[in-house]
Design goal:
Number of helices: 5
Helix content: 25-40%
Shape: globular
Number of strands: 6
CATH superfamily: Dehydroquinase, class II
Number of domains: 1
Bound molecules: 1,3,4-trihydroxy-5-OXO-cyclohexanecarboxylic acid
Strand content: 15-25%
Structural class: alpha/beta
CATH topology: Rossmann fold
Largest sheet: 6 strands, mixed
CATH architecture: 3-Layer(aba) Sandwich
Length: 166
Amino acid sequence: MSDRAPLDEAGAAGAGPVRLLVLNGPNLDRLGRREPEIYGHQTLADLERALAAEAATLGAAIVCRQSNHEGDLVGWVGAAEDEGFHAILLNAGALTHTSYSLYDALRGSSLPCVEVHLSNPEAREPFRHQSVIAAACVGKVSGFGVASYALAARGALAVLAKAASD
Ligand code: DQA
């Protein structure tokens, strides 16, 4: 398990940048070495650095966490609102296709969540075609490699802006 804050968290409560919690699930700690022909050569640290820079240009701050354990992800989703986050970006790895616990955690959170994937699961093995968490998310970005995360951040910010103007 790791917990990195690429950006200063000074704006934690109340005023300050929009705070996005970026969660990565099982095996995403091995990015760069894990099936690079599918997931690319960038490491998770590379991805998080690039996303932090992109988020900063959008006026958002990110906090990135990764775990190979379902319970960690469930706990982080459940605590996100109390921790002062505004939205969640979630690449749940293979838990995407199996985890009713994550689905319930997302349903139980009032924060919008964007499902993220580096690859396009629908174009891969049949077991990846179903996402059990999709119905608890506001949208999904998949298939664009590390760029999926920046696109998901833009989507989350658009959802938050719309909610603020409604
Ligand atoms: C993934 C797709 C999942 O099917 C797979 O189990 C992963 C990574 C992606 O980012 O493309 O671990 O979520």
